[in-house]
Amino acid sequence: MEKTLKLGDKDYRLHSSLFTIIEYRNVFSTELFNDINKLDNVSLKNGEDLTTVIDTIFRIIYVLHRPFSKLSYNDFLMLLDFSILSNQDELQNLTNTIGEMLATFQKGSAGNGSPK
Asked: How far apart are alpha carbons 6 and 92 in whole angstroms?
């Protein structure tokens, strides 16, 4: 699936496929769906947990955008303005887009650490 996400004043092309799961592990040395499942147990009262949520969300966007860019994760983050975090509409669009892009992986999967 391909989609364009607008963050700030820039459009980011995103692509999800089997590559997404493999590349996430190759780049971050963790499993995509394990990281997503950890988000369910986060307490946003703790600033450290909020940082984890932000990092995980932007890791996902980075890997979805990676077929169109070879920037490092740090360079990718440097392109994003901090104001994105205070824009409710952009954050909602961001999370909706991630859900839509990864929904195809989660349909029909269950059990033993498989994506839900």
From this structure: 12
pTM, two decimal places = 0.82
Report the distance separating Cα 9 and Cα 49, nearest Å.
Answer: 28
Mean of the pLDDT values across residues 64-75? 95
The DSSP annotation for the chain comes to -EEEEEETTEEEEEE-SHHHHHHHHHHHSS-HHHHHHHHTT--TTSHHHHHHHHHHHHHHHHHHHGGG----HHHHHHTS-GGGGG-HHHHHHHHHHHHHHHHHHHTT--STT---
Percentage of the chain exceeding pLDDT 90: 47
Q: Which of 4, 5, 7, 13 minimizes the C-alpha distance to 66? A: 13
**Structure-block tokens of residue 46:** 């703790």
